[in-house]
Design brief:
about 300 residues, Helicase, Ruva Protein, domain 3, elongated
Length: about 300
């Protein structure tokens, strides 16, 4: 669908006609979520929610708005993700700003937040809970935990300065910045010494390097490679975490890590073999796929750092 022809036929058309035509064009381009994407993009142009857009199906929109909608559709037809086009993504019922500097928060990652919150409840709440999110990206996990744990102090590290800036903006957007500290640096190197946390969370890169090129274009062409590439076998970051995280855990501390589907056995094995952890456990997501690995600090590691 070319922008000019779309605008010529769609000027001052009702919302329903614009959506139908846009959905047909997106479907023809092989985009499975065509209708949803059309609704989100038009809603973005009109500053309406999807629900409001459905109610306003007879609304006539201006030539300028038609042009803006057509421009956004052209970007989507080039397989740019909707979240990058609108600059927004909902996660954990919160609103996040996203740019191409960060991985788009995904619903599957909400399972990591759920598991982390369960661990947090089991920890001693008599003192401020200290939580570390390594490789925070957009800050989706760290900000969500801060929103749910008002007694917690959250530290987030990120190697990409652009991503770190995005996370800071999202903390401010969701009014939790006063309880969060953001540190630039790679994984635990950002911390230096003398830090101990009750809970460490992470959503590391876990895709096998050879898999990235064959992913859908929305991922392989648009999302930051550094947030995707987990090395030849997808386990590079987990090896790093397994070897270093114990030094930054309190005596009752725990880790919660998102993993890729079918990686549960391998990641659990890494933490069991490290000899520093106990109660290594796998949690599935709601589609029955491997999603989160939990490990707790072993008694023989306390004080070893």
């Amino acid at each position: 669908m070319e922008s000019a022809s779309f605008e010529k036929s769609a000027n001052f058309s009702p919302v329903r006609e614009l959506l139908s035509q846009a959905a047909r064009s997106l479907t023809a381009a092989g985009i499975e979520s065509a209708r949803l994407d059309a609704e989100v993009l038009l809603g973005h142009v009109l500053a309406l929610t999807r629900e409001q857009l459905i109610v306003a199906h007879d609304l006539l929109i201006s030539a300028g708005q038609v042009h803006q909608f057509a421009t956004l559709l052209q970007r989507r037809l080039r397989r740019e993700p909707v979240a990058y086009i609108t600059g927004r993504q909902e996660f954990w019922s919160l609103d996040f700003q996203v740019t191409r500097d960060v991985l788009i928060p995904r619903p599957e990652t909400e399972r990591l937040v759920e598991v982390a919150l369960t661990l947090a409840v089991d920890l001693d709440a008599k003192k401020p809970l200290r939580v570390l999110d390594i490789g925070t990206g957009s800050g989706a996990v760290a900000v969500s935990l801060a929103a749910e744990l008002p007694w917690a102090e959250i530290v987030a590290t990120e190697n990409s300065l652009a991503a770190l800036a995005a996370a800071q903006k999202n903390a401010a957007l969701n009014q939790v910045a006063d309880r969060m500290t953001f540190l630039p640096g790679d994984w635990f190197a950002a911390l230096g010494g003398g830090h101990a946390f009750d809970l460490i969370v992470a959503n590391p890169p876990y895709l096998r390097r050879a898999e990235i090129a064959i992913l859908e274009p929305e991922v392989s062409l648009w999302e930051p490679l550094g947030a995707l590439d987990g090395g030849d076998d997808g386990l590079d970051c987990y090896r790093c975490i397994a070897s270093e995280a114990w030094q930054f855990l309190t005596p009752n501390g725990a880790l919660a890590l998102e993993i890729g589907a079918h990686m549960g056995g391998e990641v659990c094995a890494l933490f069991n073999q490290a000899g520093r952890y106990r109660e290594v456990a796998l949690f599935l997501d709601y589609a029955g796929r491997d999603r989160v690995v939990v490990a707790k600090l072993a008694a023989n590691s306390v004080g070893s750092n």
